[in-house]
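Quick question, first post here. What does this chain look like in 3D?
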Amino acid sequence: MNRLAVVGGGSWGTALAIVLAPRFPQVRLWVYEPDLAERMAATRINDIFLPGFPLPPNVAPTPDLCACVAGADIVLSVMPSDHVRRLYGQMLEWLQPGMLFVSATKGLEQGSLKRMSEVIAEVVSRKFPPRIGVLSGPTFAREVARGEPAAVVISSADADLARTMQKAFAGPTLRLYTNSDPVGVELGASLKNVIAIAAGVCSGLGLGANTLAALITRGLAEITRLAVAAGGQARTLAGLAGLGDLVLTCHGELSRNRAVGMELGRGRRLDEILSGTRMVAEGVHTTFAAHELAARLAVDMPITAQMHALLRGEKTPRESLRELMDRSLKEE
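> Answer (accepted):
Ran it through. Tokens below.
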């Protein structure tokens, strides 16, 4: 395991390249924007998505997918969820059966409602059966890049792959736990962004800790219901990829999804909010997919339903809050 390819030069992909660089002789980082890749190669800084954190000498940024993934031992994908199918299709000719694949993208594919590992498997299986793991947990890119201790989960139905990735990625500031429930891990990682938008709305409305605690608790309950209905394990949602990531994203000042919710709570329109940033708030797309998946699996997800209506402009933040509080009373 000498050659690591990180596909996605946003804040999280860059942070992973930085923190994993001491573990690999060679790390190649694919950056979508050719001008940014050129600047990163010259200045060793991702000045758009992760300014202030120099790339280690063995990290090579490139806008060339072939140069990034050809000959890699591990392909770590960190692109936005709506680009996963397309990019794996473009990479397919350079992918080989001996490679290991790890997805660090949090989201669901629009339309198909597939998890990212399912999308990767579907595309790569046209050439060979891939070995895939999922990396997730409570992590902000800036804190990981700064070398602050963090703990994450590497999940796969392939126990050997999970153990291999655990040993390959673990270091002084990044602790990995193995997990055999990628369904629960990926759904927890995706759906926490929906609840984080709701948490931001509460903050934007000026609400306090009582409201946020209730939101996180009931948000975790509905995420768990959906994950179990989809074949995941409830206990996974009590771990790093569920509760851990949920608490971080709902509380943390660095959460992009929470920031979107805060602006919604203050009365701004969604299109106006999103046009003002180059960062991807995965929770917006995930809200629509999660709402559809909940209907498909007949799972009650009241917070997600209200966020769906709010993002579509069908309700105001105050109306959504009132409807959640006015729901019929029941046993917890």
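Strands lie at 3-7, 26-30, 59-62, 74-77, 100-103, 131-136, 150-155, 174-179.
The chain has a mean pLDDT of 96.
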